[in-house]
Amino acid sequence: MVTQAISTQLQDPLNRLYRNRLAHFVAEFLQNTAFSPNIVTIIHTFIGVMGAYLIFHEQYIFAVLCLELRAVLDSADGILARLKNQNTATGRALDAIGDGIAFNALMIAGTMRLIKDFKAYPHPLIVICVLFFAFIAVHSGVVYHLMRRKLVSIANKEVDRVELEWREQYEQTKVAKAPWLARFGFWIDSMTIRFVSEEWYVKVLRRRDLQNWKEKAIHEAEIMHELACKTRKREFQRAVCATSFVSDDNVFSLMSFCFIVFGLFHESIFPFVHPVLISFSVGLVYSIVTLILGLRFYHSFLHGVYRE
User: Whole-structure pTM over 0.70, yes or no?
Assistant: First the structure.
């Protein structure tokens, strides 16, 4: 029950409200069909690109519908993978690439819209600003998913899920003809772990080739769970709360809200506000603030535990 509560707290509000329910319904419907999780990933990637196309053509309401459908299917592919027992490193890497394609399509469409509507401003300046936002938002999403898996593992008193997936990818990369998706996923996870906490990365690296690595990992998990429930309970709860706000789904939700409000009432109420400009600006500010706060509270808990 504790783990379930932590998992729920780590989700963004719209996921808790309706997205996850719809995702479970879709996954259960597709469970006994020929649809694989990877096919669902490809479908939601295409829908995300379609949403970006609609944004360029200023069809903001239909674009938001596409982005919301993409978000539901993005959750459904993971649930379907668990139901069909097809949760693989390749699938996770494909999902990350699909999310990247959809998000980059949105960035490209928004950039083209801004360049078209703000002809007086230098085009390179607009491109650089959008690229900076894209980098921050994508990085926030990657960090969020990693921190979320770590916190759930601590709450469940189990071996670090991040380390398990990291080791699975490491074993695949040792093969001579390892899939490039596996190599890419391993590199992304390694760099992200190191970015979040150098001390955490060193501990994972030291256990990489040990025969009894699982015993040491379980012992560490028990200690961290004990501290999270007792002496460092407040720091743990703060880390969970702050991490939930780092979610890239929050950025999409906030941008969708801006697209609806400023797109729907652009001519009548907000004639001097550009929907794409305000959405990107709000998303950038939100991403920076939540990433800084999320890492601060996460470090406060994790480094405190390692010191003890």
Answer: yes
